[in-house]
Amino acid sequence: SAKAKGRDNLALFEPALDKAARERRTIETDLREAVPRGQLRMHYQPVIDLDTGATTSYEALLRWYHPQRGIVAPGEFLKIAEETGLIMLIGDWVIRQTLSEISTWPGDFRIAINLSPTQVLSPHLVALVAQAIDANGIAPERIEFEITEHVLMAEGDASYNALLRLRELGTKIALDDFGTGYSSLSYLRRFPFDRIKIDRHFVERIEDNTHDQAIVSSVTRLADAMGMQTTAEGIERRGQLDLLRKLGCNEAQGFLICHPLPGEAVYPGDHNDSVAAEHSDDLLAYRK
Ligand code: C2E
Ligand code: MG
Ligand code: MG
Ligand code: MG
């Protein structure tokens, strides 16, 4: 019978479920100790101006230096951090660490910091940001917080108010992974973002997909008309870079230009030219 079959299936999958649950618990236990044990680090990925090739900003990306697992990317632990509330501890650490680390780097680049829905809803976020800005003497307009559509989806009004208060501090707000949500355009009516980050899925096949070209070109014109800047994510080929510039995109980020790097690799040095170029002959040619 169907019922018996269901039971059999359940029995069949139980060990796998069990394993996943145990794995999750291990990550959670380890993650709880990651901040006190100093296992978290920030990596920084340069973003370039598509007209000049100069580095305009860095996006701060979290990495977990796990003693057994090696360097773990946020995709493997952010969801657990979010569900367990550990994101608060981790998120605070990210803001303090990033602003303190970059405060010694030369240049007036922007720094982009990602915020999760729980962080945005936290009543102490704005005070923490204000304190970190003060402690490190960083001009607030150099800081750009990146949020995804999930932030505005979760708790519309409360999140919207938090973003307005961050904006009042002088920081910028970018809409990350644009185009991947359910009603991307409606979020643009809801909040005056400074920047749209065009998700890498629209960039992936842009060289031979005329529909993707049309989407990106429309988004850049829309952004322009609304006084917003655009950054394209996930650029891996020179052809994408050239096309994005032609389509009116302002800035670009991706492995072609530079992988995310630990702070020590970004500074010291003439980071405006050497770091990214070192990682890409293609980019070097682009800048000539
Ligand atoms: P995101 O904010 O959209 O960041 C861009 C992601 O794309 C990064 O993944 C980056 O390493 C990756 N990437 C950059 N260039 C390329 C490329 O050319 N090709 C491909 N395939 N990928 C590229 P990462 O570092 O694994 O981060 C994943 C996501 O985790 C981020 O997506 C962001 O939403 C979140 N995240 C990262 N760091 C933090 C953090 O400190 N706090 C919070 N709340 N979220 C974070
Ligand atoms: Mg981001
Ligand atoms: Mg993104
Ligand atoms: Mg993305």
UniProtKB/TrEMBL annotation:
Residues 24-274 form the EAL domain. Coiled coil: none annotated. It comes from the Bacteria. This is EAL domain-containing protein. It comes from Qipengyuania marisflavi. The chain holds residues 481 to 768 of 782 of the full protein.
